Amino acid sequence: SYQQVFDNDALKQSIKDGYLLNDIAFFLEHGLVELWPKKETVIDREQGTIRWKDKVIKYDHIIDGDYEVPNLPEIVVGEGSLKRKYEYDCRNNFMGMIPKELRNVYFIGLMRPTTGGLNNITEMQCLLTHKMVTDPRFNDEINGTLEKRIEKYNKHYYHSEQRTPADHLVPYGFYTDDIAQLLKIDTRLSDCRSVKDVIIHYIFPNAAFKFRQSGPYKVEGAKEMVQQIYKNHMGFLFLIGGLLTYVLLQLTGYAAVVTAYYQQWIPLIAVPLLLVAVLLNPVAMFASWLVGDSLLNWSILGGLNVILVVGLGLTAVYKNPLIPIAVLVGAFALTYIVHWLGWSRPPFHDLSNKKSPKFRDFFKRYCATFREAFLER
Fold first, then answer.
1. What digits encode the pLDDT tens for the residues 329-344?
2. Mean pLDDT score of the chain
3. How many CB atoms lie within 10 A of CB 319?
4. Cα 353 to the chain's mean position, in Å?
5. For a FRET experiment, which of 259, 331, 349, 357 has its CA 20 to 30 Å from that of 253?
6. How far apart are CA 153 and CA 155, in angstroms?
7. What is the DSSP string of 129-151?
8. Is the pLDDT at 303 greater than 90, yes or no?
9. At 29, which helix (H) or strand (E)?
10. Which residues does 5 contact at the CB level (< 8 Å), separation at least 6?
């Protein structure tokens, strides 16, 4: 992407303006960056060195990663001699934002997404705050059952009772959907009137505007935007195709186990173990997502799904475990071959296309131009 945008006569000026190549995966691939395990390194701050095994380097600066700390003003809780400074604890707040120790105080922006979507989280928190402030009945309902709601929320989002510095991190899609359900503005399957509606209901990301197509927090144009995004992404066909491939691969694996038992190839005691192995295997998921955004890759995925459906049909008719086993071997072999040929690629961090002479030559020119720009500064 950087090469396509900046590989022109203005490259030096773009570098001076601060548009720098920042591709850590590419740097790792070419040995320009080394990853040292933090637990195995020794930092000598007095000498300004870092040592790992037999390697020692002198550093200019150390950047220590740390956990986020809420940037709150001083809040005092209690009265008289019982006054104390309020310390924010994510698990003492419903949805991380409605504290049980305070009334009519709402913490917006302290919950963070594990990936992306902070703006969606914050917008939905603002809607919840607005509802709490403007609807006394809703306010009383939430505050009247706040302890139970916090307990239920914590059981749902946390796997242990031990608090961690990462308690404020949530999957934004589930979090925004939880608030939408609380405000009764979530999309419902019963409201769907077409296949498109069902696809949008299940597959469209839980962005804030998905919940603002109708109801008390409706925004004009949100519904049209959802439809346009659906259209621009071809009805999420690639995502649906990948999901279908995964389901068919899993069903083929289950069919192989069941028919093998039916033909007395395996004992009954082995069946549950093999079914669990099929359920947890990572290969099916990997194969189902080895599809890019070209029509060629879509045809490969479509052909793979047809083979899997035919294989399941033949298995149901002949009840021979060799059929699903052969189909699985063929499917995985086809996945490997098309990826090896470069016809298909995983969605993230596929570096094979960056090994071409085109990108290697550009990177050399980029480094030389960077040095010139740096010296001129």
1. 988 888 778 777 766 6
2. 90
3. 13
4. 24
5. 349
6. 6
7. HHHHHH-HHHHHHHHHTHHHHHH
8. no
9. helix 24-29
10. none
